[in-house]
Amino acid sequence: MLTWKEVINFSVNGNPTPDRRVEKTEAEWRAQLTPEQFRITRLKGTERPHSGALCSIYDEGKYNCVCCGTPLFDSTIKFSSGTGWPSFTQPIKENAIKYEKDSSFGMVRVEVMCNTCDGHLGHVFPDGPEPSGLRYCINSESMTLDKEAVNDN
What we know:
Order of helices and strands: HHHEEEEEEEEE
Shape: globular
Number of strands: 9
Structural class: alpha+beta
Mean pLDDT: 94
CATH class: Mainly Beta
Strand order of the largest sheet: 3-4-8-7-6-5
CATH topology: Metal Binding Protein, Guanine Nucleotide Exchange Factor, Chain A
Low-confidence stretches: none
């Protein structure tokens, strides 16, 4: 189970190696994604709170990267944070997520991205529920919910 200390370590000293890499040109990403998905995942945007389709859905399945299909989070670790974005306590695998220090907008946060394709997902904070204490605050537009992929870690 990842801890805040490990998240900070990844953001400062380098991330775990992904299982695979997906790299495309900007034109290829634009052709594949909706304008909103492109804005969020490739331009590091965010959706308005409580506006995402996956915010209030708690169906079983895997949450995959909308860009490359990599499994990122499992529905069993999703929780209602009240923040307006889907929230999770852990990634599906330690190397599924990439972490970078984000000093934009006058604050210091830890940005989370898909470690396979570098798609922006959201941020992680140390104010989640026990036992990890982590809250991965993720844009709905950066994920798809695969309801067919239940319990196949």
